[in-house]
Amino acid sequence: MRTMIRMIKRLGNREHGSITLEFAFIFIIFVFFVFLIFEVCRYMYISASVDLTLAEAARITSRSEEIVDYPDLFARTVDEQSDLLSMFIDPDDFTLKITYCSSVSAAMTGNCSSGSGSKYPLAIYSASYRYQPLLFSYDDDDSSISQLLTSLNKPISRRLVYVQEYERGDQ
User: Fold this and answer.
1) By percentage, how much of the chain surpasses pLDDT 90?
2) Phi, psi of 66, rounded to the nearest 5 degrees
């Protein structure tokens, strides 16, 4: 009888390796959350960098004294600004656009021109940056995880309205 009780106790105490299994399950979840936090921080950094790049480039372009090609100056300034932040930002992923408006009401109604900026006191500077997740890749199938990761590939878009300092005239 005693031998039977000893055998039952030995069978009940077989927990060798359970800590290893628990660690393996928890470690995988932990690593996933570390990567997720890194990706969210990277997105926030890129978003703030796009804001800074657009604001600086638009400010420099809108205060240009000489008669220049505003879109070209804007693109060059964005390239210069994004070179400073080149660790995470690729200047080739920017899409830039400038539209010019004669008044605030024209800007509100969308009655603006994308031609020459001459004689237009307002300019709407737009920048769109194509964000791609770094750590989470996906395949082109119809799974829900793939659709979730595809939604992360949306561009970061910003628009600013500036007064063109030297195009105001006597208005």
Assistant:
1) 2
2) -80, 160
CB 148 within 8 A of CB 36: no
- For the segment 58-96, what is each residue's pLDDT rounded down to a tens digit? 888 777 776 667 777 888 888 877 777 677 777 778 888
Backbone CA torsion sign across 154, 37, 93, 125 = positive
Q: For position 42, what pLDDT does the model report?
A: 83
Contact 118, 167 (CB under 8 A): yes
- Residue with structure tokens 């359970």? 18
Count other Cβ atoms within 10 Å, centred on residue 29: 9
Amino acid 27: pLDDT: 92
- Cβ neighbours, 10 Å, residue 101: 21
